[in-house]
Specification:
The protein contains 5 helices and 5 strands; from the N terminus they run βαβααβαββα. By secondary structure, it is an alpha/beta fold. Strands 3-2-1-4-5 form a 5-stranded parallel β-sheet, sandwiched between helices. The longest helix has 11 residues. The structure holds [cytidine-5'-phosphate] glycerylphosphoric acid ester. The site of [cytidine-5'-phosphate] glycerylphosphoric acid ester has 18 residues, from β1, α1 and β4.
Length: 135
């Protein structure tokens, strides 16, 4: 890996991929030269949210992998392993949506930590509810 290039890492489930997901990946990529995305495992989602995502882990990994500004993806299997994932990827910047504001400040000894505003008016949960109304 070229040491001169600035490395950005971000995390998310990216279930039922939507414009808010695209916006944060595009904005995250602007903080460096390479963007690595930790996609939450199905197991982590069941632990966090009590249910599996609508799209399976391999499907979510494939979708995010092929978004233009994304260099590569990896599986995030634990929220507690963020420091390891950042070190493994030689991260210079961690980008998170501001729904996580302040939650990862302790990682500032590893890399810069940036929280970006969420895209308003869209979420996976709201989209699922809208689709259900059509049933
Ligand atoms: N996002 C956004 N705008 C939205 C919805 C989501 O900017 N309207 C951002 C979130 O802030 C997050 C990313 O898109 O940075 C992925 O969102 P989720 O899939 O909801 O991620 P989450 O389940 O919160 O998982 O380690 C942290 C977790 O893996 C994050």
């Amino acid at each position: 890996m070229n040491k001169a290039s600035k490395i950005v890492v971000t995390f998310g489930t990216f279930d039922v991929f939507h414009i808010g997901h695209l916006n944060i990946l595009k904005r995250a990529a602007e903080y460096g030269d390479q963007l690595f995305v930790g996609v939450s495992s199905d197991r982590l989602n069941i632990e966090k949210k009590g249910r599996a995502p609508i799209y399976s882990e391999p499907e979510r990994l494939a979708i995010v992998q092929h978004i233009k500004p994304v260099t590569d993806v990896f599986v995030e299997d634990s929220l507690e392993l963020k420091a390891k994932y950042l070190r493994d990827h030689n991260a210079d910047v961690l980008v998170m949506g501001n729904d996580w504001e302040g939650k990862f400040d302790h990682l500032r000894d590893i890399c810069e930590v940036v929280y970006l505003p969420r895209t308003e008016g869209i979420s996976t949960t709201e989209t699922i509810h809208k689709i259900k109304k059509y049933e």
